[in-house]
Amino acid sequence: MSQTNRFDFHKVLLLGSGALKIGEAGEFDYSGSQALKALKEEGIETILINPNIATVQTSDGFADKIYFLPVTPYFVEKVIEKERPDGILLAFGGQTALNCGVALSESGVLDRYDVKVLGTPVRAIMDTEDRELFVKKLDEIGVKTIKSEAVNSTADAIKAADELGYPVIVRAAYALGGLGSGFCDNEEELIALCEKALSFSPQVLVEKSLKGWKEVEYEVVRDRFDNCITVCNMENFDPLGIHTGESIVVAPSQTLSNEDYHYLRQLAIKIIRHVGIVGECNVQYAFDPQSMDYRVIEVNARLSRSSALASKATGYPLAFVAAKLGLGYGLFDLRNSVTKETSAFFEPALDYIVCKIPRWDLGKFHGVKREIGSSMKSVGEVMAIGRTFEEVIQKGLRMIGQGMHGFVENKFMSVADIDKALSAPTDKRIFVISQAMQRGYSVDRIHELTKIDKWFLHKLHNIVETAKEMEQYDDVEKLPEQLIRQAKSQGFSDFQIARSVFGDWMNDHSEEGSDRVRSYRKSLGVTPVVKQIDTLAAEYPAMTNYLYLTYNGSENDVKYLHDHRSIIVLGSGAYRIGSSVEFDWCSVNALMTVNKEGWRSVMINYNPETVSTDYDMCDRLYFDELTYERVMDIIELEQPHGTILSVGGQIPNNLATRLDKSNVNILGTSAKSIDNAEDRNKFSAMLDRLNIDQPRWSELTSFEDINKFIEKVGFPVLVRPSYVLSGAAMNVCSNNDELERFLRLAANVSKQHPVVVSEFIQGAKEIEMDAVAQNGEIVAYAISEHIEFAGVHSGDATIQFPPQKLYVETMRRLKKVSSQIAKALNISGPFNIQFLAKNNDIKVIECNLRASRSFPFVSKVLKINFIDLATKVMLGIPVERPAKNAFDLDYVGIKASQFSFSRLQGADPVLGVDMSSTGEVGCIGTDTNDALLKSMLSVGLRIPSKGVLLSTGAAKQKTDLLEAAHKLNAAGFKLYATGGTHKFLNENGIPAICVHWPSEPDKQPQALELLHNKEVDLVVNIPKNLSSAELTNGYKIRRAAIDLNIPLLTNARLASAFINAFTSVPLDEVEIKPWQAY
Amino acid sequence: MRETKRAVLTLEDGTTFEGKSFGYEGSTAGEVVFNTAMTGYPESLTDPSYEGQILVTTYPILGNYGVPPRRQKDEVSEYYESDCIHCKAIVAQDYTYDHSHWQADRSLADWLKEEKIVGIYGVDTRALTKHLREHGSMLGKIVVDGAGDVGFYDPNKENLVAKVSCKEVEHHGQGDKTVVLVDCGVKHNIIRCLTRRGVKVVRVPWDYDFTVIPYDGLFISNGPGNPDMAEKTVENIRKAIEIGKPICGICMGNQLLSKAAGATTYKLKYGHRSHNQPVRRVGSDQCFVTSQNHGFAVDSSTLSADWEPLFVNMNDGTNEGIRHKSKPFFSAQFHPEASSGPKDTEFLFDEFISLL
Questions:
Q1: Entry pTM
Q2: What number is the ipTM of this complex?
Q3: Where are chain B's structural domains?
Q4: What percent of chain A has pLDDT over 70?
Q5: Which one, A671, B115, B279, B353, has least CB within 10 Å?
């Protein structure tokens, strides 16, 4: 690489994206890690600010200094002041980093400390971020954007519509909820609608209707010498109107002709040149399916979710290259990192198709709308690679992990109104299409209702046809070879083929049926082949280890040594609520240890937002499914020494028993032990044998039995149905009313669908034991405590490590019980036990014989890598107990949860026994207050400056919050409180202004008005109980706080802790110290 | 299952690939080459440079957007690159029976049948491409079940340029300046690119002595096969060099101009056929993504002292264009007219026109 073009930087600051949230997820761990690698290679000192402790980029060896601090102008300035970097990277940490960087530039901080922005200048960022500037900028070069014309009369509306071209959308200005809006295909319709709209609104907006237009994106790269390439284009399966993050997306585009493709490509290059991007950006288009008309939807002047996807889809390391270009290099200075010999100035040629499918978890929330549209709700995504569209869509639908087997042969899903479900898309639309096709809807009819391009629909129809054909046979072995080959080339799994033949018999014989298909097809020689992703469609030899499996091919691209010197690590799959970047960290660390210990590392994962799917993290990457079928395909090809299931969360863990039955060498704890811990009955019996206490529970099949059990243990109880009709899967019920309501509305109790009822212990502490054992002996452990009392899901709780308020006696018991369990299950590898503690009694809630969500957190706080240890154990390497333990730490780590309620319109932002957070941060401080303040500010809370609204629930919680209320009062905050809370505060001598619930609309002042007028900047709302009036009132306040972006706390213990922290520690006394200095 | 006929592609080294026929159900033979472009099959099929070749597409799904109508506009084809399909056959992994595009008036299958061109799918084109990459382009034949066997056919032994060139002088466009276009198998978009810039194009056969007519600039087109077959054109170009009027060449045009400048050409192992070939303007920081389709290349080291390389391939260092050190003569090995492929180098037409 020529050094001559590089600018002279010595120390560069990179801003991360913070906690994972909807719209900003793991993709920025990937882009940040790549950028850090690119800088490190240049010998530049790197500083990273990112409170997301579970990421790979915040691991040892990625940045020289890591600050677990909020990515906000205040903290970034503090770090700049301390570190004095000469450059800053803003494009690698999503919108969070970009916004923060723009603010620092505008306030003059960057100039003051002489920090240069690498890559795209701030001016160009602002031109793309500000809607008005953006439209103006593109107008300058005659590029069309989506514009609306504001008019005050019907005559002007007609003029505007003529200019825009029909059809148009008319929206009444200043009207809420779309009142008076509609589509007009011609002047007549326009006149009618405008007259109506103008009758209640002084102004209407006329906008060109792009309903049904295609949505196409280009990823564009430009260097400072004005050389441009488009690395990839992508086409949305769902037409315009559905956010690209909510759309099924394919790459490359499928329905564009050469002329279309290059027309949009050329425009993208024209735009990136005019805006002046240096690095990477993406351009999103709306494209008319009936002409070559287009509109630019937006330009993102930074690495984005799409660019991460494009990197994985093509093998072109966009973030790495963008970082190098920011340093001053030209594209011609850089090499293609896959072929190593060709230039980085080129556009990848794909000889496969990829399909991205979003993963939603809407079922986890109360009250959220299922419709998908222009705002993002999905929490993760998958990418499937194959060589036909049918293959990738079916692979992808399995990967999203919502119990679906592909496009067809799924469990019956009842759809009341198919037409409506097709035209008003929800997260389930693709399956509605499947049903419609099976019920005889034509491609044309479905196209009319969905506007999805017929190309996609015809391909989907091919799948339905193949399934129908197989359904004609009554036994697997009777299926003709050609038909099985066709099914396989269309992405059918063994299960789907078996189900097409055996039908509902498969509900109870899923393994047996699938195994029969497997052995039959293998006897016919129907097996998948392994192909490489090499960026040049085989034009040049590539030593790439980036692989996928397909049935559309006849030859493997790689040779197998069969020397049993490789170790397969199963990754975590799609990010979802409950499993995200922390398991990617675990996977990556396991790979690194496998390599360090002299084995070849093999990764299987399909999540494009991860670092574990970077092909330079392992010796071989199979970007493919984590199903039993596919994992076995790979094991049979690879013939590894062993397979690691315990670092990727629950998905790989669930494969244990079945892989074990197929004689796969599972490294670490045995499948039998895993089953003994996972199976509630077996585990419970074991605890009884060991004389270890657990909350009483029972699996019950009738109301009568449930009542009998409750008579014994008393309310409240935790109820876990095995079959959920709607809403969350678990609930705490405090009385008969609630129990009945929950069981009748939400669940189904029967012999087939038993309910697990457990005693729920109030006011208990929840404690986590994260540990590594070898042959049943604990090697290393970390005990951490929840700030909240039990009842908040451990994934939502705020966790403190090392524990600051546990009795020594409790700690001793925890260790003893954990050792007993480790021994009984003969654990070798990572595990986690959750405990309840009240007084000095401890009870075991559950035990997972795998790495847990908190492994990266405790590993980084303790500075002992638990995964490294666990992997060594699993490789059979003797390990020594680390000399250090938690008692030696003179600092505290606090892990806090990030919620994305603002994205989930309608969802009740209240925490319960089911998890609802989408991400987390972990910050280190000198004491609890310091660490808590950092972590709470990192997840979006702000220290109030005006007033605080308190409605503090039941008597117990009111008392819990009394001290905090005193502190707020002493600190001079204006307090507002609802009825009961107001009375309670007055009685305790705390002045507060009484405000009224929404259910008393005629009384003043109204709580909601207070929020709307922004007179409070912190809301503490503790739900008292589940009575409907209480729920509605509380819900309205909570939801308003979220919608108005006012910090909200709903847990008394956490609220107390936070209030205590910010009233005790002034912001400028918060310690600014890198991880390495603790 | 869809009823399809089995088709077998046999390479001259005996390797076979089995697929299913979706085009004309006959047998055919030619030189097997691969193209890594992801779009542009109507353009490629009608590109005269593919004369005699069996085209293997590495992009696995073929036929997605059907085929645009056969229409003439300004005396050249509106959507195609010539009047007929020049490839002997097309080979893909997967074929889309139900295409979707507003401009399409028929499917690729229908078009192939119409022009009696073989099309097969179900072939592991990645494996085939790797085979060609490792062993070099080779001859091949496709036999569809029910059709008779055929022998191998080597198009490079034929004068393909003579075969695809126009037979008589043709005129295109209007303008004050006259450009003589030597048709070695010209793609229609070259004609469109010239006439769009307001010049009169006199399109002459490959062996026509254009020096007898007055002209302001000479343009030498692309074309199929081995440049050594077009010695007559090279002789005429030598005369044009003496005349000194501006000269520009594309692809075959680059090779013929180079030969006129004293250089030699050689066959590449498997050629450049794609939309993503990176080239750099020699001595500058300017790089371009280009569309390419050629099996032969110019040996830059054999250029005479008055000439120098203009562009170089950033992947393998091969010649991508030449220019005269003092006179207005230059050429490009890649396709600035694109069609199919990226249009980033269309400015070369402007550079040429500005010299007239």
A1: 0.96
A2: 0.97
A3: 6-157, 160-354
A4: 97
A5: B115
